[in-house]
Amino acid sequence: MTASAKSRRTVDNDALFNCFDSGRKMRTVPIFTFLAVLAVAECVSATSVPNCQNVNCAEARCQPADCTCGSYKDGCGCCDICYKCPGDVCIPLFQERCSGDKICELDEPGTFFFGGKGKCKLS
């Protein structure tokens, strides 16, 4: 095999490898895009105001609430939900509320959309 034939063969192999490699990258882009859209849609759904139009507020469907730090009504105004007490673990993404003038402060800032946990502290 001549030197120029070896050179062409090397170039052809490199071109084939680059084409395969970029094709593989191109297949992963739609997958990651789909997963990102799905994650955003789930966060929006989880934090949206509930549709209470067809909700039956029967007491029997509510769990009994024995709350140390008080309670508030759920999004539809049916069931009592306990406030978190000072020092309790809370998850702001789930709209958990702290009692009084306390706020749910994340342990790791920037983890809100990943269900980051925090503690109820004075604001």
Structural description of this entry:
- The chain has 123 residues and is α+β, with helices and mostly antiparallel strands.
- The radius of gyration is 27 Å and the shape is flat.
- It has 2 domains: 1-48; 63-122, Omega-AgatoxinV (Irregular), CATH 4.10.40.
- Strand 1 and strand 2 form a beta hairpin.
- It contains 1 helix and 5 strands; from the N terminus they run αβββββ.
- It has a 3-stranded antiparallel beta sheet, with no helix packed on it. The protein has a two-stranded antiparallel ribbon with strand order 1-2.
- Helices cover 37% and strands 15% of the residues.
Fraction in helix: 25-40%
Helix count from the secondary structure assignment: 1
Sheet bearing the most strands, described? 3 strands, antiparallel
Radius of gyration: 27 Å
What is the CATH third-level topology name of the largest domain?
Omega-AgatoxinV
CATH architecture of the largest domain: Irregular
Key traits:
123 residues; alpha+beta; Omega-AgatoxinV; 2 domains; 15% strand; Growth_fac_rcpt_cys_sf; signal; Secreted protein 14
Task: Describe the secondary structure blueprint for this structure.
Layout: H1 3-47, E1 71-73, E2 80-82, E3 89-90, E4 102-106, E5 118-122
Antiparallel strand pairs: 1-2, 3-5, 4-5
Give a quick rundown of the structure.
The protein is of the alpha+beta class.
